[in-house]
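Q: Structure tokens for this one, please.
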Amino acid sequence: MKEILQDYSRAELDALVASYGEKRFRADQIYTGLMQGKRISELPVSSAFREKLLARFEDEPVKILETFTSRDGTQKFLFLLADGNLVEGVLMRYQYGNTQCVSTQVGCRMGCKFCASTLGGLKRNLTAGEILSQILVVNRAEGGNAKERKVTNVVLMGSGEPFDNYDNVVKFLRNLTAEGGICISPRNVSLSTCGLVPEMKRFADEGIPLNLTVSLHAVTDGERRMTMPIAYRYRISEILEALTLYFQRTGRRYLFEYSLIGGVNCDEAHALALAALLKGRPCHVNLIRLNEVKERSLATVSEKQAYRFLGVLEKNGISATLRRSMGSDIGGACGQLRARYLEKREDENV
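A: Here is the predicted structure, written as tokens:
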């Protein structure tokens, strides 16, 4: 596979253009074009320079292969990468703007039992430019550009564990939030991790004050190990310690994702235990009714059960919300669309 031009920061792009003996304004043209979601073959540069770039860089590192639209307006995208791999993303529409969920890896090796992304294991990491290009192509497809964005918020909650691809993710975040580019504020970015403690502590010193979210889904280490293998490596107490450091360094409160799983973690006792665990912490809890995955045996809960759990948290002073289920009719959960597509392709090749 060729290099990805969207990997380059603005400063790196200036140096690249200079290395070809081109004038600096060419870097302005290229950067502006890339931030508009254009392919290299569409950039307003000389044909000779364009050919040099195409010989070294992928013309279209991320392409929208298929788009599915839910009854609620949520869109799910199946992205084709230049090497033939697939990832997916979701565009969710809210009153305050459009939030895009992006993938950071092809597959995942964390093995969480409620997630379809892990079914085929980890294939490879995405580069910073491949992560960014998911946003650029959707923003363009929606009629947006760098100045009038149609993608206003970004969540790193798609396929993959962001901190398992640490360097590429941090570079992506710097390019995403850089002045002069698509320039999405860190306050409008959320990163979800299953709890890689060393990377969480390292990230606290990166100077990127985004919304750090931990997939918790349990109130004890023993129960967490039942659905999240990472719990064998890092205890909940270690995760809370890392989050305290993050708050001290950034001043940003942190969030927890808590998927309600029928018969596992959803009764009043669990709600009370979760409230006791988080009491007094600068945090917020996002409750999620589990998106069922056919390859897994885990079941979701009723809306009534979910609101009962929420009520216990609120009564005990915990800031919490029940996330609205979006895109369930199009396989909105991580990895579901890619898994179905690969299964279909495998059947066709039999």
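A few notes: The CA atoms of residues 62 and 84 lie 10 Å apart. The first helix runs from residue 10 to 19.
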